[in-house]
Amino acid sequence: MIRTTLALLAASSIGALGTSAQDIAVQNAKLWTGDRMIENATVVIEDGEVTAVGTGAAIPVGMETIDVEGAWVTPGIFAPYSRAGIVEVGSEVSTNDTAAGASVYTAALDMSDGFNPLETNVAVTRIQGVTRIAVAPGFGASLFGGQGFIANTSGAANSVDKQKAFMFINLGEAGSGLSGGSRPAAWAKLRAALVDARTYPARYFAHNEGDALSRVDALAFGPASRGSQLILIRVSRASDIRKVIELKAESSSLNIALVGAEEGWMVADELAKAGIPVIIDPFANLPSRFESLGATQYNAARLIDAGVPTAFSYFTDDSHQTRLILQVAGNAVANGVDHEDALRAITTVPAQIYGMAGYGSLQSGSVGDVVIWDGDPLEVTSAPTKIFIDGVEQSLESRQTRLRDRYLSLDESEKPLAYKH
Amino acid sequence: MKRTIGFATALLLAAGLAACGDNDRSSDKKGSPANADAGEINKNPYPSTYTPYPSSPVLLKDATVYDGIGGAFDGYDVLLSGGNIAEIAETIEATDDVEVIDATGKFVTPGIIDNHSHLGVYPSPGVSAHGDGNEVSGPVTAEVWAEHSIWPQDPGFTRSLAGGVTSMQILPGSANLFGGRGVIVKNVLSRTAQGMKFPDAPYTLKMACGENPKRVYGYGGGGFPGGAPFSRMGNLAGYRTSWIKAAEYKEKWDKWEEEGGDMPARDLELDTLKGVLDGEILVHMHCYRADEMAQIIDMSKEFGYKVTAFHHAVESYKIADKLAEEGICSSMWADWWGFKMEAYDGIPENIPMVHNAGACAVVHSDSDIGIQRLNQEAAKALSDGRRAGIEISDAEAWAWLSANPAKSLGIFDQTGSLESGKDADVVLWTADPFSVYAKAEKVFIDGALMYDLNDPDGNPVTDFELGQPGEGDTK
């Protein structure tokens, strides 16, 4: 209760509509629960959490009820690979905290230190229905990008849900470039770093530095090296993915997920067997680099058919256009993915990858992230009509909607447009 | 009942499209092929060798048809014959030589025309050896021609074809004040760039406003200051200096043409700028901010030329009234924003707000990914506009993808709409192309079937992808 109250106090100052988590019921929904579709469903939210879901769910007497009259209702969308909130204007380095090419630290970089819930792209992301984001580091000074986090998009002061949720590592062409110039160099560094971290602090008593990591970075890499923190590895080429599968076979305790995996379909069965989930961009279908010669929009369908837990993201602009996750999911459906699997790839699968039970779903006990839509959420013509995060109704305004409203009429006969606000 | 469409619908949209109208006429005075007149400059030394591929007549039966100029016709037939649009009518009887395709429940539109692409000049794979899209060596490189950088084996052409793109403008990059000439191509794979060039299309000139030139030349290279331009006022001074030179150059040539004497010395850079001042070369200018566009408009008047289109134009919505008045097109993304300061005020309603002001709106890609689904970009813009109270029909919005870009490129007399006699650049869609689930099923270019969703073996594979992982895979 204390946690909820604090969240609400913060939320009220940045444009959330409610002053407290509403106890609210949504009725007559075409509901995606995160696991299955239910027609004419009811969702009951109390104290910011889902307490009942289903066609027969009872609405407590006197509870505020929204009859959505058959509209689509989904959990808040969970974007599994975003940089929203850590960069305001991409090319302005003073506003860009995604990467630190000149830093002496690598694994120790905690991206949540750079998170600004009031960045304009957070609201822009939210009003398209994305309520949770996994925020990843960019490409910095090393194959270790640092540690990413999970946040909600409410804009509230305390909207980081899980700090240090994962360690981000670049392999493939990017990792080679950051490791001295070759794949073997990247792998040598990664293996040495695993030893450094696993033997921390003992080996650092004898030697001041590890083979690959400084004291601070070795400490930071410790949990991931022992399997208690997820390692998210950026990798594309089939042969590079096989190397990661080998690593997992050698160190089965490692908790690994892949991002990119443009040639994942070529090793889909091996990935499924190894239990390694992937985050892919369903748009990727060009041999844009030699490591992605096999890229195809059918990657998604083939991975899912092979049983690989597959989440979607839009890579081309992962900070300001995180919202396009819905469009890429729709395109995945156009390219052979079942509609429910596409919804799963932007709700429950991301939550599972990051170990966030109760997120990306609307089941009893889930967080109260609810989005009501004016159409099929995966259609490019659809948009949310109401959004709740932790049971708090959210503003549908952003700086973009304010600009739109100012310029809808260009009439300056009385006063400059600058007076319209 | 047979009713041939075209005229009435053209009238319907006349008001909305008048903004682009000037460009129609410019296509009539484009650079003529190698002129034999003694001493005259050959304005077309790298001529198109494209000729339409053989086709037999095709009748698309019972489709929903968007004619690209605002008309929507449910349950109509479209006949393609001899490489052209032969007829559009409620019922067309097929003669024996006609292949009939049942298009019930499907949609037929003009092919998509992307007026901002770097395919071929920034091809896949994006290796260092392939960075041929921008002659960054100086702020004024009006002398370079994008067609001389095109690698016709770019796999991106095949992907954009699958997205229903039948023609595109390939532009140099935007580092320079004057980036060089663009080229318009048919999206038909060829061994040579000349084999793709759109026959008789005018040349274009790429210019750039704002951050890029001052960043690259002012702050580039590590020195302080790196050189000119270092600021937006430096940009303007740079353009104006070049236009003054171009005006002098033009005067010399005009005088020589009238009075004879010694032929003036050729200058490749000034040839291109003179082409603009002569009204033969169309100006396509990368420009994000509204206030900068207003400066550029004044500059074009100062030197007596016309800006055909502002590209990216993320702030066109702020001066849509002025753009309508000046008859300048805006080539826009649906929703890109924020990656640089001059893109900070981008909004998803930009395209419909420009259209609503009576100005010419074009959906462009500037991306090898975006070009594959420009129909979805239009759909996003259209629906965001409607939510803001701007009612535009689906059929009108298709003009953003075909008629308006064709007008901006001076090729609207040949393509960009489904009207009798025009090139049969046509897409048959599996479903409503403003749905995310629709795919281009068949793409005809000049009546020839160039892409077939259901016949992967019949689709092109570039040299680069032969013998590589995924060769011939459905992409």
Automatic annotation (TrEMBL), chain A:
InterPro entries: Amidohydro_3, Metal-dep_hydrolase_composite, Metal_Hydrolase, Metallo-dep_Hydrolase
Signal peptide limits: 1-21
Keyword field contains Signal: yes
UniProt keywords, alphabetically: Signal
Domain of life: Bacteria
Residue span(s) of domain Amidohydrolase: 175-383
PANTHER family: ALPHA-D-RIBOSE 1-METHYLPHOSPHONATE 5-TRIPHOSPHATE DIPHOSPHATASE (PTHR43135)
Protein name: Amidohydrolase
Species: Henriciella pelagia
Lineage: Bacteria, Pseudomonadati, Pseudomonadota, Alphaproteobacteria, Hyphomonadales
TrEMBL record, chain B:
UniProt keyword list: Signal
Cofactor(s) needed: Zn(2+)
SUPFAM superfamilies: Composite domain of metallo-dependent hydrolases, Metallo-dependent hydrolases
Region (Disordered): 23-49
UniProt xrefs under Pfam families: Amidohydro_1 (PF01979)
UniProt-listed InterPro entries: Amidohydro-rel, Metal-dep_hydrolase_composite, Metal_Hydrolase, Metallo-dep_Hydrolases_sf
Transmembrane residue ranges: none
Domain Amidohydrolase-related residue range list: 107-447
Signal peptide (residue range): 1-21
Highest taxon, organism lineage: Bacteria
Record protein name field: Amidohydrolase
Organism in which the protein naturally occurs: Henriciella pelagia
